[in-house]
Specification:
Radius of gyration: 23 Å
CATH class of one domain: Alpha Beta
Helix content: 25-40%
Distance between the termini: 32 Å
Number of strands: 18
Strand order of the largest sheet: 15-12-14-13-17-18-16
Structural class: alpha+beta
CATH topology of one domain: Alpha-Beta Plaits
Number of helices: 16
């Protein structure tokens, strides 16, 4: 039997997609990468995933694992040689268990993030991972890229939220590691090895994740901020004033939110006059375990002091859940507004918080000197040093001309990130977008260790080859 015939016998013909049926699986969310696949396999259990991997290993067929296909670096998109099998985890979508006493939830990789949040809330608990794509991204993809999101400041990224994993290895064995333990000092931490590996070492099929008590009250505010330096100082005041209750702190260039309200008239900034034209905005969220009044009192005191200190010109505090959602919707609509305005050169970087203001000022200057007139679309999670630093076309450029500059723009931005002690990938992963950039900035010993791990765990080289690290 041929490989496809064996695959169809294993999964059923309806779960092996080819031709036009495979098209949605071979293009990334940004439509930047379009590949071709030998087929798309849609198993519905860990055992069937393991059987597919064993079949691929026997035939030497490369495997590209895919979750919700919302990635931004092409990590879940096959190359255009048509040799790889796309392994969709979408049918592994069950919540296996919730343990309220242990504050854990065990879910399969194909569970949509929003469904996990809702299952936790129905059990009276909080699963805090939150990002713009939560209605379509899956837990498997979140784990594969070590996703961050808006609440990293308090709860950590996906790695910090994970206790145990179930993984299918590159030779089709199953590692049953779904332990709900917060202490397990019995050897190498394989869990952290697979998280963030983007499917290059094995396939994560399920995870045991941490839950938290639901906050009694939440307060959200949008502040008009005069500069990045003021935003950093405001963050320091918020940390001192709120402590661990500070859940999120987002910083956004004024042109980002001004584009949102221009392109989506149903949304509005809660300011008028000069504040609405502020060069920067900060979005803060406080989660309180005591009461609504206690949260509001703390919030108003700290923000009032910040305004008196000149760190903000105005503040709009949400009066209810609907207003809080509207403020977050402004932030989450920035990528949609970007898409409406046309393609841009995107960067997902992290820099020590103390050096972010200098990074933005220096990098903006370097880009303007070399590519006069390009635009800067800057927003991100200031609380954990993660910026989405994007470059848009100059008034006299079209998209093609801008994208032709990408290698040069990358070098300017990434060199500046490196000079400021940062990382060229904060939460989106490496994928195929940055795989050739990594050797420029990774410590050579670190990169060599990564290659050795890849060769040790995937000696046949079938797991998402050509992504993250080239062997």
């Amino acid at each position: 039997m041929t490989f496809l015939a064996e695959l169809q016998a294993l999964l059923g013909a309806g779960n092996v997609l080819t031709g036009d049926d495979a098209d949605p699986y071979v293009v990334d969310w940004r439509k930047r990468y379009r590949g071709r696949a030998l087929a798309v396999a849609r198993p519905d259990s860990t055992d069937s995933v393991a059987a597919v991997i064993r079949l691929c290993a026997r035939h030497g067929v490369p495997v590209v694992p895919q979750g919700g296909n919302t990635g931004l670096c092409g990590g879940a998109t096959p190359f255009d040689d048509g040799k790889a099998l796309v392994l969709s985890l979408a049918r592994l979508n069950r919540v296996r268990a919730i343990d309220n006493d242990n504050d854990t939830i065990t879910v399969e990789a194909g569970c949509v993030l929003q469904a996990v949040q809702q299952a936790a809330e129905a059990a009276g608990r909080l699963f805090p991972l939150s990002l713009a794509a939560e209605g379509s991204c899956t837990i498997g993809g979140n784990l594969a890229t070590n996703a961050g999101g808006t609440q990293v400041l308090r709860y950590g990224n996906t790695r910090d939220l994970t206790l145990g994993l179930e993984v299918v290895t590159a030779d089709g064995e199953i590692w049953h590691g779904l332990r709900g333990l917060r202490k397990d000092n019995t050897g190498y931490d394989l869990r952290d090895l697979y998280i963030g590996s983007e499917g290059t070492l094995g396939v994560i099929t399920a995870a045991t994740l941490k839950l938290f008590p639901l906050p009694v009250a939440r307060c959200t505010a949008l502040l008009a901020v005069p500069s990045v330096e003021a935003g950093v100082q405001l963050l320091g005041r918020a940390r001192n004033g709120f402590g661990a209750a500070l859940t999120g702190f987002e910083l956004m260039a004024g042109n980002c939110l001004q584009a949102v309200v221009r392109l989506f008239p149903q949304q509005r900034l809660p300011f008028s006059g000069e504040a609405a034209q502020s060069p920067w905005f900060a979005l803060l969220e406080l989660s309180d375990s005591e009461s609504e009044s206690h949260a509001r009192e703390r919030f108003e005191a700290v923000l009032g002091e910040a305004i008196e200190a000149g760190l903000a010109s105005d503040a709009a505090i949400a009066e209810n859940v609907a207003q809080s959602r509207a403020l977050w919707h402004l932030r989450e609509s920035i990528p949609l507004a970007e898409a409406e305005l046309g393609k841009s050169i995107k960067h997902d970087v992290s820099v020590p918080i103390s050096r972010i203001a200098d990074f933005v000022r220096t990098t903006n200057g370097l880009l303007q000197a070399r590519f006069p007139g390009v635009g800067h679309v800057i927003f991100g999670h200031l609380g954990d040093g993660n910026l989405h630093y994007n470059v848009t076309r100059a008034p006299d450029q079209d998209e093609t001309a801008l994208l032709a500059l990408q290698p040069q723009v990358y070098q300017v931005v990434h060199d500046s990130v490196h000079a400021h002690g940062g990382s060229i990938s904060a939460e989106h992963g490496v994928g195929q977008l940055k795989v050739d950039e990594l050797p420029r900035y990774k410590d050579p010993v670190e990169l060599a260790l990564m290659r050795r791990l890849k060769q040790a765990l995937d000696p046949a080289g079938i797991m998402n080859p050509g992504k993250v690290v080239r062997v």
